[in-house]
What does this fold into?
Amino acid sequence: MKALLSLAVLAGAAGLAACVGADAGGPPQIGSAGCAAIEAAVGPGSVWYGGFHGQRERASFYDDDLQTIRQRRCFQSEPECRAWLYDLQSRYSANVYSAICRQGVPT
It folds into this structure.
């Protein structure tokens, strides 16, 4: 029983991390040093930023529920941004509230 409860707690922690947009190895978040480095490398007019807000169905310990994700990232090119959006839209397809790629530094 303790092992089962521990797994449920770990699953909840993983869901929380995804909800706030924590993903190791992803593109830099807007407002981070990584975005500033991209801006310095390609110039402010060549930076692309993407935003995504969506949900996916997830089986939980008691019942199925929806896992929400909100992320904003910056990219060196439009194809990188579109690939990132495609991946998120594929994984969080239950409800997609917004999915954008735009050129320029967000204000």
